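S1.2 Input.
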Amino acid sequence: MQWSYATQSAVTEPGVYHGLLDGLPSHSVEVARVVQGLVYHYSSGKAFFGYEPPKERIPEIDTRTLEQMLKRIVALDKRPLHEPRAYERRLIGCCRDFSLIACAILRHHHIPARLRYGFGAYFHEGYWEDHVIVEVWTGSRWQQFDPQLAGVLRTEVDLFDLPPGAFITGGRAWQLCRNEGADPARFGLGPHVPEVSGWWVIRGRLLLDIAALHKTELLCWDEWSYGDEHSELTQEEEQQLDRIAYLSLQSAFEELTALWHADKRLGVPTEVNCFSPAVGPHPVKL
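S1.3 Output.
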């Protein structure tokens, strides 16, 4: 099962820029350093490095595919990808973009890698912040690492090899709140943004995570079906998500894949609602 993640998806496929990935490192530590020299976080980058991107460049965060990302990266700076760019010459992105490029580099080396959408516990004590990381197959286990913040964020957590519980997927977040007494209000964009937290955010990350498990790596702000803020679930639908959350945490996904294809509420539709922080809500045909 894990070897299906050793090939590119339609999203991580570099296309005409395939050759740019040749010669890049294959170890997660070095991959993270490469990616950090290519992407600049649109909101948190200033806190770490002091540079604030101009407003006209913020829409770069809606770049969906690796091929489009590489096109922009090369337009900003034509040097090889392993050479770090000045802040103003990096692609403006978010956690998903760091992770997407890292995942693509690993897959280029035929190393199984995949994105996981969920929440990190290492940003604010007692709070689970929306985040996207990478899992890489070591030959015996899925190792989680944070290509955006490893080596950058000061924390006792090893961001190159995340320990259990430092990051949880949308499915695990659903379980914690449904069955283990966790407060849904403590899951979201951050304690300073209470309006973007709660059950609908958790459901949205569950949908994004199972899409990524099927190699459909979407933007963090893409939403459909259960991810709608105003959705009210029936008991049957809640039980359905209980099952989906459980299956998303297993080592094999045959049943999850069958449900993902059979239930239109779970699978990715041809059009999603994109709640872009750059340009605002708008429908997007995929």
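S1.4 Remarks. The chain has a mean pLDDT of 96.
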